[in-house]
Amino acid sequence: MQSKIRPKRLSIVFSAVGAACLFVLFLFLVAIFPNEGFHTKAASATTQQIPQATLPGRLVIPEINVDAAVEEVGLTPQGAMAVTEGPTDVAWFDLGPRPGEIGSAVIAGHEGWKDGIAAVFDDLYKLQKGDKIYVEDGQGTMTTFVVREIRAYDQNGDASDVFNSNDGKAHLNLITCAGTWNATQRSYSHRLVVFTDIETK
Fold it and tell me: Beta partners for 135?
């Protein structure tokens, strides 16, 4: 199944509440999906079409001791990717493919939570090419991905390749914030993306 959203250009901007890094993934969809009810309809259709048991339930990354529950998120009314409220879970963008389906599935997680509290992706930068990432669904089926590349993006740069792929293969891309904290803008200067490919046997 291909991704349900294909924006021409996509930019990722990070903002924060206190010292907690939050993701605001602004999708430039107005020209492509002009109807105001798009976000609600798309999210509703996704929920109805996919059996709950096959949705991603946990993200496991042994190399950095991550074993996190996966929350399903879509778009806010402002056209931004929703995020988890706490620091320990991760967010799967459910308007794109599920991990293991053809296309680029996207999971985001917090880094640098307030008051020194550990966040799920604090150590994401430590991953290296060849490391393995696992996604378990509600039936206990585990899908394995292998890290291909780690890339830092400027917060205003074009990040379309994070959400889209056209090679006919399954990918999982992980996103967190990175770089320098700007107290005035209340945001980080960069975002870190880990690109992975499904393991082939």
Answer: 59, 143
Angle among Cα 50, 54, 144 to the nearest 5 degrees reads 130
Q: Please answer whether residues 72 and 59 qualify as being in contact, where contact means their C-beta atoms are separated by less than 8 angstroms.
A: no
Q: What is the pTM of this model?
A: 0.77
pLDDT digits (tens, 9 = 90+) for 26-85: 433 322 233 333 333 344 344 455 566 689 999 999 999 999 999 998 877 767 677 788
CA separation for the pair 12, 1 (Å, rounded) = 24
Pairing of strands 187-198, 103-109: unpaired
Domain ranges of the chain: 10-198
**Distance separating alpha carbons of residues 76 and 82, to the nearest angstrom:** 6
Lookup: tokens for 166: 């056209």
Continuous segment of H or E residues that includes residue 38: helix 38-49
Q: With respect to CATH, is domain 10-198 assigned 2.40.260.10? A: yes
Length of the chain: 201
Q: Sign of the C-alpha dihedral, residues 192, 162, 168, 2?
A: positive
